[in-house]
Predict the 3D structure of the following.
Amino acid sequence: MDFSSKLLENAVNEMSQLPGIGKRTALRLVLHLLKQPKEHTEFLANALQKMREDIKFCKSCHNISDVDICEICVNPNRNHHIICVVEDIRDVMAIENTGQFRGIYHVLGGKISPIDGIGPSQLNITSLVEKVKSGNVQEIIFALSSTMEGDTTNFYIYKQIKDTNVITSSIARGISVGDELEYADEVTLGRSIINRIPFENSIKNN
Amino acid sequence: MDFSSKLLENAVNEMSQLPGIGKRTALRLVLHLLKQPKEHTEFLANALQKMREDIKFCKSCHNISDVDICEICVNPNRNHHIICVVEDIRDVMAIENTGQFRGIYHVLGGKISPIDGIGPSQLNITSLVEKVKSGNVQEIIFALSSTMEGDTTNFYIYKQIKDTNVITSSIARGISVGDELEYADEVTLGRSIINRIPFENSIKNN
């Protein structure tokens, strides 16, 4: 693209560094900002910079938090002996929205992915293993997405804690509630048969 | 969405003010910035703010420009008697890319759109009419998109300059080169028949 302004070109180039934002979309967004009052751009730029500079992570579960220990980790009404292992804050938000989990979380910050250059040392794995070895944990629930990277990460952690007394579990994979069987992929359908549950349990959850 | 951090929530809220960016996408983009080195966010924020603060518009054609009079308007090799009227910089870039136009532009900055509260006074129409009345213009080419707003804007300008000696033209509407007739919409196909051109001209352009 041949811009008539370096300022515009810079803004578009920086914007198009974001994932899923191409040059055309970036130009559309930047031109939108130009049509808005100056304050809009200022608020956006400040919010991003302040977030990036001052963001903190909970010292216990590593979730994003404005305080040292997050709301969930300080809540005495939650079961601190059950830890749900997730990839990032989006998973915490999704599980919290269900209202079905009263334990606490451990946020890994990613999955082991050699292709992307992410090894175990870049994730919050050591602190999880330490928590388990301290003896205060009853159950670890693996709730990573079931991709190759997710499975690898689960297994890497599992190997380090399997000799402790902790119970390990994985969230159930199966047909989504309301989905038609015929459209489900084979692997999911296959797993949902192997991992079938007592009928009484399936009624209980409704 | 229930965020565990006000800083994160602010950043997501500001990001989701951009057109076509919902809360989920905004969260994904912001989390991406969190995983990148701090400089990335700084560069983005600075580029946006600097652009919004310092951007200038060409005093002649109103296109975005870092100098008082833009490159196109100062170029002596361009025909300053033919003015192509467009909505914004994206149209200038698109037409420049074709390499088919050697005149100059006049950027309106939008289209008349009562629904969006945009009247003629918010667009760069007066300066265009003045240019025409100064007598230095031979031809005005209307190149706004052919929507109701585009047609209204064209007609509004046309009424003010129709008593001068200027030639007014509109870019050709028709079937895209390479498109199948059967998939063309009726209005476009109809216009392409009414506004047919001598066969020799159609060969010349290939």
Observations:
- Chain B touches chain A through 62 residues (CB under 8 Å).
